[in-house]
Amino acid sequence: MNARDDNKVAEGAILTKFERREWFLENLRFLLSLDLNEDPSGEDSRSESLRLHRMEATINSFQEQPYLLDPYLEEMVLPITETIKSHVKALVAANPGDANVSVRFTRVCSLLYTFIKFRGCKTIVRFFPHEVADLTIVLDFFKIPLDYSTTWVNSRWQVFYSVTLWLSLVCMIPFGLDQFDEVHERGKTAEAIEGIAKRFLCRSGVEREGAALVLSRLYTRADTKDRLDEFMTWGEEIILESTDLFLAVGILQVVCEIAKTAPSDIVQAHSSDLLRVARSVDNSKGFDINAIVRKLKTKAVAHTGIRLLPPRAVPRFRKGKSLVPLDTHDILRTEGEEQDVPEEMEGILEDLFQAIQDKDTVVRWAAAKGIGRISERLPSDFSGQVLETVMSHFEIHSVGVTTINEMPSIAEPTWQGACLTCAEMARRGLISDQHLPVLLGWLSKAIYFDIPKGSHSVGSSVRDAASYVLWSLARAHDPKALAPHASGLAKRLITVALFDREVHIRRAASAAFQEHVGRNGLFPDGIDILRKADFYSVGTRRNAFLIAAPQVGEHIHYRPFLIDHLFDITLRHFEFEMRVLGAQSLRAISELDLAKLGPENAARAAKLLSCADVNEIHGGLVALNELASCFKSRGLEEERQQAFRYLSELPTKVLQGTRNEMPLAAACDLIGASISSVEITLLDNSSVPNWRSIIEAGLRNRSVSVQESATKAFGSVSQLVDCSDDLTRLIRELRAGLPPMQQSLGTLVGVLDYKSFPHGLENALAFILESVDRKSPRFLRNIEARRNCYDSLPLIFSNVQTRISDYISPKLANQCFDALLEGLTDYTTDERGDVGSWIRISCVHALSKFVRILFIHSESLPNFVDYLPPEKYHTAVGGILKQGVERLDNVRQQAGVQFLELLRLDLPEVHGKERWRIFGNEMMNELFSSGEGGGWNDATWLYPKAVHFLKIPEYRDPILMGLVLSLGTKTESTHRPVSSSLVEFVQGLAPEDGVYPQVNLTGDLVKQLKTNFSNNNIFIPLLQTSDVLLESGALDSLNGNAEGEKQLRGMLSVVTRSIPRIKNISRIQASMKVAVDLLAFPALFAVGLEKSVEFLLHQFPTIRTATAEHLYLVMQSKDLGRETDGAEDVLLETEWSVIPENELVDVTKKLLELLS
To answer: Signal peptide position in this chain (predicted)?
Structure first.
């Protein structure tokens, strides 16, 4: 089994059989063949631990299908239990001082626990040895003088759990325990078993469960049951007086196990003691606040009550088999037989009724199951009273409440507990026909239980439990009794299955619907509905709302109920996404009969605009927007205009108040979808006189989503009338406003339709060009505003692409192109990081779009070369490639996608079109046509290919700078691939010949160093690139090459210039490394040593130390052509960070003498 197999196991592949049986058994034999008395060495321990981990992972992969391993359990578990027995026997026989619970033995027990965990204790314990002699072996094991401190036991818990589990089995031998006692020590064996179990009863791990099982088995033996009274007294005292939570939990586990599995005569004889111990939790010192304690108390009370009543011989439910097996210790009772209900039952039921209101679900669930099981054994009239009491819990928080939303949030646990209890009773056929209408009335409310609470809601557990009740009714109730309610049930279930917020509730409702269809066949069109809204279809919220709901809406029987639910609940929901999806679903359903449903639903949506809740107003607006868009696409002009008129019913104060972003954005969307030229020309006489102010308020809003909606609305208006005056005014007003207003202005100029006012296009482009020009006094400092301006350029060209020459002159087009090229150099940073990358991505997209538009419409441009000169085009390609090899993954990915689109774009249909062919296109196609996995954001995939771009002279400079900036990054996932790829590429270059000689590469680096000497953001990465190439020996072939040494001498001169005046530590260190690396070239050794000594004399101690370390490493790794042992000793022995200045000069002089 290799790593790939481990991954398959971890991914949870669908399993059908135990395919790794032979492998597992082989590893099991190896594990059991080891010497369990010895602890393994370090390497052996790691190997054995890995083997065990893989075996456990194999077993755990069957966690959801444990029955698949049943045929193999005996051959896998039996060797383990036999090994445990033989080893325990050996430990018992050994010298007490030599006994040791080794790591290997612990691992064997750990593997056994893995089987217990996935298949259950009851199944695995059958494979434990259970001979009479085993009892002595186990008891003697616990007599071994081991370290039972908490830390040691915690590290060996698998061993003690396994052995206590074994003890719980062997202590049930059908012989009296006194046979193991000495004559004068009667009861010694039972006392020893009890002492061992009590020792582990206070542990926090699973050993406590094993100990509880031992005690429950011990106290239910015929010869030791007299010890139960003493344990009950002790347990009650511990719970009342102690503060040991784990011990209290252990005691309650024992009580639960006794009440559940002991013979009925023992339970009935000690019922008062069992109940007294369980109820003592209420008077304890804080144990009652623990959910586990309360759950165990509830289970103990419930199990005691169950065992006080005999089971029915004939279950009352009509389908399936008994959910609770009959207890062979109990006396069976027929239905007609009279029964006396014990007096304790009233108190037991009262405790359980209180528990179904508990704040923790585990407690409520335990109580619900207890009530269901007790009711199953009660006479019919008594179980009916129990059901009435349970249903009365629904009324506790319902007094004076008209809707579910008005309930307090504390009602959730009570309603869920009542639903769970009703479900447990329904599963057992305990819901009578006379109680069914009342129960369904409450369930029709519970299935919609969703109470807003702050930024979230409570109630999902109630809705889930209500679905469980309806599912249970389908399984156990008479179809004739359900028939009158079938139609309402079907509508409610399918509505929840389609429109609930939570995926598990949609699936639960779908499962309940399916159960009713499959078992009762009462739901209208049930089979067809299931095909459209099955368990998987409703798993995704968007799929449920937009695909399954319209398909179900095709059935007239369900359509009105679906629409009512959308208006009554979904469009009023507190969550924004639910309202939007609800509006989209309403549109999809309305399209089934748009002429009829469209106007009706629009009128209903308009009524929501007068509500007080802003969420309901927003729901009405988004519904009207969706319907108006639908009317527009279908050509229903009158209905669309009516949707616009409904906007007049929206109170103005809603849009002017605080927290108005959602309704304001929705109102702008509605205007954009429904406005007409008639309403525009009416001006102040329009049915919605303030529609312009709504749009302008949206443009001035701080929210980006509101701005986008407002700009789209203004764009819709621009398609109908001349907006040039409004545009000029808005540019003037918003440009002088706050940054959020400037952002909306940048988006606005891109969405307008200039076909209605061509003269406004020049003003818009002038505004954009001024806003992004760093030299302009109207340059926008806000990064988002500039990004929006760049995003608007391709939108404008797209709007006029069919008549570019009529709207945009070649000069203006070139100005826009230059602005985009300038945007590729924006490396603005702030507290958010490299925010300039937003602009670079926008410019990459814009340039690609610009080129594609011009290429496609080249035949209609008589002067195409003026619009896109070849040199500008290739400059853009080089700029995009530079972004494609830079350090940010997202920028590389976007640039790579756009470059590949340009690479595969057909050339323009003009004379001399080859001038626009990308240089090196054949090599590019070869590099990226293989269809390999990975993308431009994957550095390990990209850079081995990208370094070959340097072979193209026309794009070499920008690509080299892109690689340099990537190599200078601190991100290891980028730095390592680019540095290794560049070194490998340079090593393959010839010194002076070839497509890109090393001499030329060095000269390009020196040129860039000189050009960017004052720009640390570029100069430092250039230094780091030079250091990588020199340190790796990629440029060693320049040794002895006159031109190469000339370029390296120039590099040394640049990197060591003005070092005393430079304060940037990173730059000084990078310069130092380059200067020291150049010592490997004999022609540069003298001057390089002189420069290196300057770094050793630097005023910063950090620089002196770093220089000494790097100089030592170079001496160790490279052949400098001279003896360096003395110099190395000086470098190592000198404290460079604290050495006095006068001594520093002497040391450096000595170092020079040694190396000269």
So the answer is: none
1025 close to 1009: Cβ distance less than 8 angstroms: no
Is 1151 in contact with 1096 (CB distance < 8 Å)?
Answer: yes
Please choose, from the candidates 178, 179, 170, the residue with its C-alpha nearest in 3D space to the C-alpha of residue 217. 170
For the chain, how are helix, strand and coil distributed in percent, rounded to 5? 70, 0, 30
Beta bridge partners of 833: 830
Q: Which residues contact 573 (CB under 8 A, 6 or more apart)?
A: 501, 579, 582, 615, 619
State how far the Cα of 633 lies from the Cα of 351, in Å rounded to an integer: 63
Calculate the alpha carbon distances from 802 to 225, 799, 906 in Å: 97, 8, 18
Torsion of CA 714, 719, 725, 726, to 10 degrees: -10
SS3 183: coil
At residue 405 the predicted structure's pLDDT band, cuts being 50, 70 and 90, is confident
Distances from the Cα of 21 to the Cα of 66, 570, 1017, angstroms: 14, 52, 60
d(CA 386, CA 463): 22
Please identify which residue in the block is written with the tokens 């794009």.
955
Main-chain phi, psi angles of 830, to 5 degrees = -145, -160
pLDDT band for position 329 (cuts 50, 70, 90): very low
- Closest among 423, 340, 354 to 393, alpha carbons compared: 354
Stretch 736-752: mean pLDDT:
87
Instruction: Determine the Cα–Cα distance for residues 870 and 865; give it in Å rounded to an integer.
Output: 7
Predicted local confidence at residue 10, as pLDDT: 40
Cβ atoms of 412 and 447 within 8 Å: the answer is: no
Backbone angles phi, psi at 985, to 5 degrees: -65, -45
CA distance linking residue 497 with residue 562, whole number of Å: 11
Closest listed residue to residue 448, CA positions, set 483, 415, 484, 487 = 415
**Measured on CA atoms in the order 14, 15, 21, 27, is the torsion positive or negative?**
positive
**Which amino acid is present at 783?**
I
Per the CB < 8 A criterion, the answer to whether 1023 and 1073 are in contact is: yes
833 phi-psi bin (left φ>0, alpha ψ -120 to 50, beta other)? left
Q: What is the largest CA-CA distance in the chain?
A: 121
Could you tell me which residues come within 8 angstroms of residue 173 by beta carbon, excluding any fewer than 6 positions away? 130, 132, 135
Among the residues of 533-658, which ranges form H helices? 541-543, 549-553, 559-568, 576-590, 594-607, 614-634, 637-645, 652-656
**pLDDT tens sequence across 191-236:** 999 999 999 999 888 999 999 999 999 999 888 888 999 999 999 9
User: Angle at Cα 713 formed by Cα 708 and Cα 715, nearest 5°?
Assistant: 95
The pLDDT assigned to 6 comes to 46
pLDDT(324) > 50? no
Evaluate whether 948 touches 920 at the Cβ level (below 8 Å).
Answer: no
Detail the DSSP E strand segments found in 894-1005. Answer: none
Of 258, 160, 140, 137, the closest CA to residue 208 belongs to 160
In this structure, what are the phi and psi dihedrals at residue 811, rounded to the nearest 5 degrees? -65, -45
Cα 1124 from Cα 982, distance rounded (Å) = 31
Residue 103 burial (CB count, 10 A): 16
Task: Answer yes or no: are the C-beta atoms of 202 and 153 closer than 8 Å.
Answer: no
> 597 near 639, Cβ under 8 Å?
no
1068 and 1105 Cβ atoms separated by less than 8 Å: no
Do the Cβ atoms of 463 and 446 come closer than 8 Å?
yes
Dihedral over alpha carbons 508, 510, 511, 514 (to 10 degrees): 160
Is residue 216 within 8 Å of residue 198, measured between CB atoms?
no
Element (H or E) spanning 296, and its range? helix 291-307
Tally the residues of the chain. 1156
Number of other CB atoms surrounding residue 425 within 10 Å: 26
**Alpha helix positions (H), 636-676:** 637-645, 652-656, 661-674
In this prediction, residue 320 carries a pLDDT of 45
